[in-house]
Amino acid sequence: MESMEPGTVRPGGRTARVRTAVLQAAGDILAERGYSHLDLADIARRAGVGKTTVYRRWGTVTGLVADLLADMAEQSLPRTETGSLLGDLKANARLVQRTLADSRQGPLFKAVIAAATGEARTAEALRHFYDVRVDEWAPCVQQAIDRGEVPEGTDTHEVIRAVSAPLYYRLLAGGGRIDVAAADRAAEAAATAARAGVFLSEGRPR
What domains, with CATH codes, occur in the chain? Predict the structure, then answer.
């Protein structure tokens, strides 16, 4: 769902610096040319590290992409708490919007999603990325339940997924601009549906 702010670099020793450089290079190539153009030797050259280091640590392109997604999940920004369900969902939607509208991150996600349709390990890594992000934001829905804004038994994870789904549709299907207005509409739709009981867990009365 959401990524880190572009250009974020964590402190660390040589191993951390090598990983940062290699993942940055892999992400750049994904964004520029797509998954089919990923090559470990090319990534090593762009990152300025030894080819053997890249092969020894990651082994395959799919292994490297899986690590890239894990790193993006680790560095993703934490949720925002505004005190209302709509405010929280708008904060989530706007973070997704900024990510998908970004000139690097948008194409990167398109490339990874395309690759995940045919690569089981990439698909697993992508699912893990989204699981981490949904888990991060789901508590804002639980807080809304506790405040009485939405019914008990609401599936907190489904509400968060409903926020980002329209924005990913726009990214992947060319369904219009991914702007703040689109983000706010997605959040408002999810909040309205949640209050109406649309996301009640199976077996709960509506």
Answer: 14-72 (1.10.10.60), 78-195 (1.10.357.10)
**Rounded to two decimals, what is the model's pTM?**
0.85
Burial (CB count <10 Å: 0-12, 13-18, 19+), residue 206:
exposed
Q: Report the run of H or E that residue 117 belongs to, with start and end.
A: none
Q: What is the tens place of the pLDDT at every residue in 32-54? A: 999 988 999 999 999 999 999 99
Nearest to 149 by CA among 80, 79, 82, 84: 84
Q: In 10 A of CB 73, how many CB atoms?
A: 22
Q: What percent of the chain clears pLDDT 70, i.e. is strictly above it?
A: 92
Is 49:71 a contact under the CB 8 Å cutoff? no
